[in-house]
Write a structure and sequence with these properties.
InterPro entries: Aldolase_TIM, HMGL, PYR_CT
Strand content: 5-15%
Distance between the termini: 30 Å
Pfam families: HMGL-like
Number of helices: 11
Bound molecules: 3-hydroxy-3-methylglutaryl-coenzyme A, magnesium ion
Family: Belongs to the HMG-CoA lyase family.
Number of strands: 8
Radius of gyration: 17 Å
Structural class: alpha/beta
EC number: 4.1.3.4
Shape: globular
Largest sheet: 8 strands, parallel, barrel
Strand order of the largest sheet: 1-2-3-4-5-6-7-8
GO molecular function: hydroxymethylglutaryl-CoA lyase activity; metal ion binding
Length: 288
């Protein structure tokens, strides 16, 4: 049965803008996030505390956070790859932090310059510090439906990383089809494998739309009882280390699809479309 309500996690300001060739000015990021809030999005990933050498587009995350309005009904989340990132996130008063692992060794190396096991070892003290600080911790697994370097990825490999992240204290694990390689059958098989080790209520879907299959893949997983979806306004997004990956699935498309299924999201499609026009205009590109 389909869920009656879906929580959308807006990742455009982070996953979208991290992959833009130009660095968007801080004021534009802040206005985008304000517009997303006005559209009813409450859980918003606003940036990352990573090496500015690796991802210069996110270098102003602390400045963005300092200018954001309060978010009383939701959370501003940031990605952190290590304790250094966590300390910066705490100083910026992040409402949530997320660590990001991969189900494929080659992608782990390319994205965060270490093996999967090393990454998990690096996240353990972050999880500990987050727990002490009372900051909710989210976990990502990348390449769950395929890797740009290794090709196929086994559902068991995804489940294994997901299990470690949950054991560390993540409240939710988000399954990333980083390069939009999956099909509905693959997506279902992956979620079914993860659901053996993680409660369905704690699984989120993070699908990139490289081949236009993200909505179909999401639909397949909703039928398995998953009810959290990551999406990016205007379909912004991608990952700088997955060449050829265009956007995350567009929040506008997800909201429309869910409405068609009679599933509540709490998001105002008109104001969401305005936020999409605002950011595509700022980027000098056609609206999604
Ligand atoms: P490294 O070079 O192995 O790290 O990078 P290091 O510890 O040797 O440090 C190198 C330099 O980075 C040092 O500075 C550190 O201080 C600095 P230097 O002495 O050379 O001047 N550094 C930092 N600076 C700021 N913040 C930090 C930090 N840590 C170290 N937290 C590292 C390892 C992880 C840092 C690097 O590889 C990195 O920053 N990677 C970021 C990759 C990234 O952001 N990728 C995109 C996000 S993941 C994604 O998009 C996928 C997702 O959407 C899900 C999906 O779609 O699948 C989540
Ligand atoms: Mg992503």
């Amino acid at each position: 049965p389909l869920p009656s309500r879906v929580r959308i996690v807006e990742v455009g300001p982070r996953d979208g803008l991290q992959n833009e060739p130009v660095t968007v000015p801080t004021a534009v990021k802040v206005e985008l996030i304000e517009r997303l809030l006005a559209a009813g999005l409450t859980h918003i990933e606003v940036g990352s505390f990573v090496s500015a050498r690796w991802v210069p587009q996110m270098a102003d995350t602390a400045a963005v956070m300092a200018r954001l309005p309060p978010n009383p009904t939701g959370r501003y989340a940031v990605l952190v790859p290590n304790l250094k990132g966590f300390e910066a996130a705490r100083a910026a008063r992040a409402g949530e932090v997320a660590v990001f692992a991969s189900a494929s060794e080659a992608f782990s190396r390319a994205n965060i310059n270490c093996s999967i096991a090393e990454s998990l070892a690096r996240f353990a003290p972050v999880a500990e510090a987050a727990r002490e600080a009372g900051i909710p911790l989210r976990g990502y697994v990348s390449c769950v439906l395929g890797c740009p370097y290794e090709g196929m990825v086994a559902p068991e490999a995804v489940a294994n990383v997901a299990r470690h992240l949950m054991a560390m204290g993540c409240y939710e694990v988000s399954l990333g089809d980083t390069i939009g390689a999956g099909t509905p059958d693959q997506a279902r098989a992956c979620v079914a494998a993860v659901a053996l080790v993680v409660p369905r209520e704690q699984i989120a879907l993070h699908f990139h739309d490289t081949r236009g299959l993200a909505l179909a893949n999401l639909r397949a997983c909703l039928e398995l009882g998953v009810s959290v979806i990551d999406a990016a306004v205007a379909g912004l997004g991608g990952c700088p280390y997955a060449k050829g990956a265009p956007g995350n699935v567009a929040t506008e498309a997800v909201v429309a699809e869910l409405e068609g299924l009679g599933i509540a999201t709490g998001i105002d499609p008109g104001r969401l479309a305005e936020a999409g026009r605002f950011i595509t205009g700022a980027l000098g590109r056609a609206p999604a």
